From TrEMBL:
Pfam families: Glyco_hydro_10 (PF00331). This is Beta-xylanase. SMART domains: Glyco_10 (SM00633). The lineage of its organism: Bacteria, Bacillati, Bacillota, Clostridia, Lachnospirales. The keyword Hydrolase applies. Coiled coil: none annotated. One of its GO terms (biological process) is polysaccharide catabolic process. It comes from the Bacteria. Keywords: Carbohydrate metabolism, Hydrolase, Polysaccharide degradation. The keyword NADP does not apply. GO terms for molecular function: hydrolase activity, hydrolyzing O-glycosyl compounds. Residues 63-384 form the GH10 domain.
């Protein structure tokens, strides 16, 4: 059996089921009708106005981490990175790893001119880029114990005190500019002999969210977990991650959103095992259906789909698998964000730049090659959100000045033509709104 047959075994076997469920889910969950009422300055309806509607920005969030912003070795590469990122995404995950944000106690690296740390651009730099380009920022992560600074003592009370200070400072400085915050990460990956005492406390999740809510009063608070617990060890409502969240919610813990990583971190020789665990459409839908019962939106927070090499077939398989997975996630009612992890090959975690044999570089899981050329995977994501899942349509008002169109939810540019006159307006067409728009021309 060739690699393509191995990777797409279950997608091929379940082709009709997957195709139907994806198509129905997208129509039901990602599209709706916008109702327009066009009037003149006196409030009278205007008949026969020709309306052109063009989707400019999806409401559905899709992005990647921004860890290599101005971190590449040449200006040319950095410029391409910034260009390719904004061309493909409307969301960016920003690094708030405590160890790297505050390597020296009391001297956080907030400002643009702070000392540089690889793969850790400063929050001010990242926010400047996001705000200039209409990209929604998201913070990763408030309490990620393995990334605690060395100067934090392994003492429960002192850890809580220092975390409280960190939460307070970040909320004061960035709470109004960053809506979504991952509060705690990978609690199911605990190492009994290595992790800090506070990470082993029975209420570490509850305490972290309760304390975050104290300072981030109007923000989205997200729990995040590794792929193994989220997908591979799935046991319906007996899944450990599901039970952890369910218990926390029963304790009135303010978890707003459920995050689930999706890193296919299996070596090539074990890809068949990976597909058994993570490449079955019916299982993927079952996981999403189960976690949707928590009545919280789901984010696919960190995605790595391996190509393993620069070979043409390997890159084509990566692209096709991304297309299949994104289609499932995009179609599901509970999912509200899909976030790829590394944009560029050769700059992943736990490896020197450009060394494609070590760390996470081994997987060739980026969307651009090390030389910044586009892989088929990058082109697939752009085509999905900008062509296949895109709306450009026309309608005409009736005698009562009303018209409607069906499209994907998001920000639209409307162009009105009447009697040789052209007017443009912007509307936000949302899944969670009435979507009745009265427009005066």
């Amino acid at each position: 059996m060739g690699r393509k047959e191995t990777v797409f075994k279950y997608f091929n076997e379940q082709k009709e089921y997957t195709k139907d469920r994806v198509a129905l889910g997208i129509e039901k969950n990602r599209k709706g009708f916008a109702e327009l009422s066009i009037k003149d300055q006196k409030g009278n309806p205007i008949e026969n106005v020709h309306v052109s509607a063009v989707l400019e920005k999806h409401e559905f969030k899709h992005g990647a981490n921004l860890f290599m912003l101005d971190e590449l070795e040449t200006k040319e590469k950095n410029d391409i990175y910034k260009k390719r990122f904004k061309e493909a995404f409307n969301l960016a995950t920003l690094p708030f790893y405590w160890k790297d944000l505050e390597p020296e106690q009391g001297k956080p690296r907030f400002e643009k001119d702070s000392p540089r740390i690889y793969r850790r651009p400063t929050p001010d730099l990242c926010l400047e880029y996001c705000e200039e380009n209409g990209i929604t920022p998201k913070a990763h992560c408030l309490n990620y114990m393995p990334w605690s600074p060395d100067w934090v003592p392994d003492d429960i009370d002192e850890t809580k005190r220092l975390l409280d200070k960190r939460f307070h400072e970040l909320a004061d400085r960035y709470g109004s500019r960053i809506h979504g915050w991952e509060v705690i990460n990978e609690t199911m990956e605990i190492k009994l002999d290595e992790d800090r005492k506070f990470f082993k406390e029975p209420d570490v999740v509850e305490w972290s969210f309760d304390r975050a809510k104290r300072y981030f009063k109007n923000n989205e608070l997200i729990i995040n977990e590794a792929s193994s617990s989220a997908w591979e060890q799935f046991k319906y409502n007996r899944s450990a991650y599901y039970l952890q969240i369910e218990r926390a919610l029963l304790n009135h813990t303010p978890i707003d959103t459920v995050g689930m990583q999706y890193h296919m971190f299996y070596p090539r020789e074990k890809e068949e095992v990976c597909i058994e665990q993570m490449g079955n459409p019916k299982k993927l839908f079952a996981v999403l259906d189960q976690y949707a019962k928590l009545n919280r939106p789901i984010q696919i927070t960190e995605i790595t789909i391996p190509a393993y090499s620069r070979g043409e077939e390997d890159e084509e398989i990566q692209a096709e698998l991304i297309k299949q997975l994104y289609s499932i996630w995009f179609s599901h009612e509970a999912v509200d964000a899909i976030i790829y992890w590394n944009l560029v090959d050769g700059y992943a975690a736990f490896a020197p730049q450009g060394d494609m044999t070590s760390g996470e570089n081994y997987y060739h899981g980026g969307l651009l090659r090390f030389d910044m050329s586009e892989k088929p995977a990058y082109q697939v994501i752009k085509e999905l959100f900008q062509k296949e899942w895109h709306t450009e349509t026309d309608c005409v008002t009736d005698k009562s000045g009303k018209a409607q169109f069906k499209g994907f939810y998001g920000q639209y540019r409307l162009t009105f033509n009447m009697n040789g006159k052209t007017v443009e307006k912007k509307i936000n067409f949302s899944k969670n709104a009435s979507n009745r728009f009265e427009i005066v021309l």
